[in-house]
Amino acid sequence: MSIKFPEGFLWGGATAANQFEGAYNGDGKGLSIQDILPKGLRGPITAEPTDDNMKLIGIDFYHRYKEDIKLFAEMGFKVFRLSIAWSRIFPNGDDKEPNEKGLQFYDNVFDELAKYGIEPLVTISHYETPLALSKNYDGWVDRKLIGFFENYVKTIFTRYKDKVKYWITFNEINSALHSPYMSAGVWTPKEQLSKQDLYQAMHHELVASALAVKIGHEINPKFKIGCMILGVPNYPLSSMPSDVIKTMQQDRENLFFADIHVRGKYPRYMDKFFKENNIEVKMEPEEEEILKNTVDFVSFSYYMSSCATSDTDKNKKGEGNIISGVPNPYLKASEWGWQIDPEGLRYILNQLYDRYQKPLFIVENGLGAVDELIIDENGNMTVNDDYRINYLNDHLVQVADAIEDGVELIGYTTWGCIDLVSASTAEFKKRYGFIYVDRNDDGSGTLKRYKKKSFNWYKEVIAANGANLKEK
What we know:
This protein is α/β, with parallel strands linked by helices and 472 residues long. The chain has one domain (10-463): TIM Barrel (Alpha-Beta Barrel), CATH 3.20.20. It is built from 14 helices and 14 strands. The chain has an eight-stranded parallel barrel, surrounded by four helices. Strands 6-8 form a two-stranded parallel ribbon. Helix 2 packs parallel to helix 4 (100-115) and helix 6 runs parallel beside helix 8. The longest helix is centred in the middle third of the chain and has 25 residues, at 195-219.
């Protein structure tokens, strides 16, 4: 088969404010939950920001955005996914008036992207709930956050109505099941959090997301507003029927968030789960109507697949990002234990499109690895990251197959298109980018940018609209 991507396909890269912006307390910005999480999602929460938190400086995109966007333009990006730091706009989350300097920063970034014809794809809430909302309200457990979020989205939708077309409400919203602090700003420790409060918090996020869709379409009917889930397709570990049923249950656990975003109501299969776990989601009368404001597209991250089994002896979870499962014996893993499965991307694209018949958007995919900076034959500093090129090539070939299968796909943004701080481990040595940033886990480094070998490879892929990808 010849590789074909649709005309106008949006090629680009993805980032998150808390992992690359820096300037964590500059120009009126308040603290976010990330500013006291120096070791990533599995690490301890500190009382105050500490010097070992790599995210406080990130890669200083806040002051270097023109340089970085120029590099993205050189690669030929059609789209750039970034998030707005809620606490840069409303420092405490519940402030009456927004921070003008924060609003102006994103104006400047969007104007710079427009200069090069790059479409912004903006995540409204990407694991960076204002810290004050987490501490004072227990994050999304409190219904009041819906109103604070409503004020936030009205502010940014109105301000950027002519500069941004594509929006994502919450990053990987289903991750709240596994990391309630990171995903939903829940201050109560995970081991003390009841299932009732967890699902109530997620309900509030779902209502807020639907409300954002409603508000956005009223402010600008041309807005395209999507949801986002952490995409982890599940395979039965064996053909034993109980393993197939377990796989169905794990899929439902991950996908019920998207089901609500697309269908505008809770799926019936959750009735049994709620009953068995003594969960009664409290829903105000108007919220049932609000949920009917469904998304324009479904976006997702994809890094790995997992297996499911009903056999408790074999049900040992492997390494993963936030959601992990039983390792697949047929797959190899990355340096961080994430199983590499290009065909899984084709599978989940078909699974989601069959389920929803909505346009899809791959907004994260990539390989975290330890990169070695070297001097090439021309005397330039670079990284020979053929392993990254091979990983992305193999995944994109499967994307092309999914498009051939009939999947409607808007675009593809690689995660960490420029090196940034890892969300799961808060390390810098775990690099994803096409652009190497001179910064190390001990805080040393000049922050200078260098093009990796993959930089020119991706540039060529975009220029050829994927036609030069190599099939195996």
